[in-house]
Amino acid sequence: MIDTHCHIDFEEYDKDRNEIITRAKDKLDAVIVSGIGYESNKGVLELSNEYKNFIYPSFGYHPVSSQKCSEEELKLTHSHLIENLDDIVAIGEVGMDYYYVKDKALREKQKEIFLTFIDIANEYEKPLLMHVRDCEKKALNIVEEYDNIPYVVFHCYSGSKKTAKRIMNHDNYFMSFSTMLCYSEPHQELIRNISLDNILTETDSPYLAMTKEERNEPVNVVNAVKKIAEIQNKDVETVDRVTTDNARKVFEI
User: Fold this and answer.
1) How far is CA 90 from CA 38, 107, 155, 220, 223, in A?
2) What is the dihedral of CA 63, 65, 71, 73, to 10 degrees?
3) Got the DSSP string for 183-200?
4) What pLDDT digit, counting tens, does each position of 109-119 carry?
5) Using CA atoms, how far apart are residues 236 and 226, in angstroms rounded to an integer?
């Protein structure tokens, strides 16, 4: 099993990060830690160097943060990303967030910044890991215009069934599902209709734990895999094998 999206570089893990990673190593094949900005990207790279062949880094800029970033910082983030292209498995998380951001001008800035990262993914042919909450259809319309992005991942997918069907028309597009599956009825309904061939698993740790009081961690991706198996009436081993193979293909790990 692979947790394809988490943030164990965050300060929430400063006191017990080694224990968290040890628990993950006991159950999982790999963990992908996603950067959310220039400083975060540097930290993610350091963590992956410390835990080689288990933790893999992706570099991005979270959309809610990106709307406030200066042109200078954006250029710095771009250059740092390009300098480390050989060491990262994807560009992301990047995208747009219409759930938290309602202002039209800020949404437009998010889109402009998102496009700069899409251009890099397209030019250098790197997988694109997208945070596109409440704007999945709009993001799909955008990325479909690009021909050289090898793989596109809709991180923590919560869009419509109709958009999901369009995503499944692309054999190189994937929807990632988290531990939210264990308690979110809308996500459970979604997963009933999505082919395993288009599914990745994640936790988005430290977020999306089973309760609001808990801190999530990568090993809990096991719960997402079990829930997918239960809902799709498949055995856990099959879901594990297919989703793991999907992740290995997308991120070349």
Assistant:
1) 15, 23, 12, 22, 25
2) -120
3) T-HHHHHHHHTS-GGGEE
4) 999 999 999 99
5) 6
Tokens of 227: 């829930």
Residue 36's domain comprises 2-251
Q: How many domains does the chain have?
A: 1
Contact 175, 199 (CB under 8 A): yes
pTM: 0.96
For residue range 2-50, what is the model confidence (pLDDT) as tens digits? 999 999 999 999 999 999 999 999 999 999 999 999 999 999 999 999 9
Query: What letters, b where the CB count within 10 A reaches 16 and e where it falls short, cover 51-74?
Result: beeebbbbbbbbbbbbbebeeebb
| Distance separating alpha carbons of residues 190 and 240, to the nearest angstrom | 19
CATH code of residue 192: 3.20.20.140
Cβ burial of 195 (10 Å; 0-12, 13-18, 19+) is exposed
Residue 192: CB atoms within 10 Å: 11
* Whole-number Å distance between alpha carbons of 54 and 94: 23
d(CA 140, CA 144): 6
Whether 182 and 228 have beta carbons less than 8 Å apart is answered as no
Could you tell me if 127 and 150 are in contact, meaning their C-beta atoms sit under 8 angstroms apart? yes
